[in-house]
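re: the backbone from monday

yeah here it is again, tokenized this time
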């Protein structure tokens, strides 16, 4: 998806050079070009979850399951995507006042700032997993068959992920610098297209190239290379079981309350004193 969006962005850019007054071409180019890297991010996030599922026996890292890692980071990526989409949409409005354009720029910068925050958090977790696997390999805890099954070493895949994250970070820093001065026409980073090719298009192309040469599929091979897929009928059965268990729990609590009868009084006479005890 990331490569497709980048390709479409340049298709619309080419069309825009031939039809410079066509606003839809300009809008499509801007939106696709600004948002395409988020798909590359999502791919990298899913790869970490699959690495945990494939190599770690308990299939958890830091108390979080492998599948949940991908789920959490993809949703964080979607959040950054939505913020950037809102900002980019505002900046591409035709004949919008400067204040509106600046609002869109600030929203977009907040979105890429969020994206970089998530990238840094993810990088720390990736390093933690990398060190864990190195320790497991040194002490014989890493499945030797899994490490030799693929055509590429798992270590190379980690370096590919680090390189891709670094390239994405370069692109984010460029975008932050580009819009830091708003729509100032004297800002060369904003007005000269060469900067975008060198500091945005080129890093994303290299990231895509690296992830294709050292593709996760060349490392993760075998029965555990994919998350277990649950059929639609199985999902319905699990959902029905949860619903019935919840209903049974509610009935149990209800019957438990009904069994609690009124207090009974017992009079116990000892000497000249009478004591009331309640049970």
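seq for it, each position gets an aa:
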């Amino acid at each position: 998806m990331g490569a497709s969006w980048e390709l479409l962005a340049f298709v619309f850019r080419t069309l825009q050079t031939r039809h410079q007054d066509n606003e839809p071409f300009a809008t499509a180019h801007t939106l696709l070009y600004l948002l395409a890297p988020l798909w590359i991010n999502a791919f990298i996030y899913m790869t970490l979850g699959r690495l945990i599922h494939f190599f770690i026996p308990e299939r958890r890292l830091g108390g979080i399951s492998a599948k949940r890692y991908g789920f959490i980071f993809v949703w964080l990526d979607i959040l950054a995507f939505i913020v950037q989409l809102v900002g980019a949409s505002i900046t591409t409005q035709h004949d919008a006042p400067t204040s509106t354009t600046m609002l869109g720029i600030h929203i977009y910068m907040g979105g890429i700032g969020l994206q970089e925050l998530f990238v840094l958090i993810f990088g720390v977790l990736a390093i933690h997993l990398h060190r864990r696997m190195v320790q497991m390999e040194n002490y014989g805890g890493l499945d030797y068959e899994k490490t030799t099954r693929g055509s590429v070493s798992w270590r190379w895949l980690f370096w590919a992920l680090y390189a891709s994250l670094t390239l994405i970070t370069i692109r984010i820093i460029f975008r932050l610098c580009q819009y830091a001065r708003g729509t100032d026409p004297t800002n060369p980073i904003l007005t000269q297209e060469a900067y975008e090719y060198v500091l945005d298009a080129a890093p994303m192309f290299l990231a895509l190239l690296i992830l294709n040469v050292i593709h996760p599929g060349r490392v993760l091979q075998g029965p555990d290379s994919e998350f277990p897929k649950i059929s639609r009928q199985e999902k319905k059965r699990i959902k029905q079981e949860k619903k019935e268990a919840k209903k049974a729990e509610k009935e149990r609590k209800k019957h438990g309350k009904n069994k609690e009868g009124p207090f009974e009084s017992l009079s116990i006479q000892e000497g000249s004193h009478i004591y009331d005890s309640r049970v």
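The two ends are 70 Å apart (CA to CA). The CA atoms of residues 60 and 248 lie 31 Å apart.
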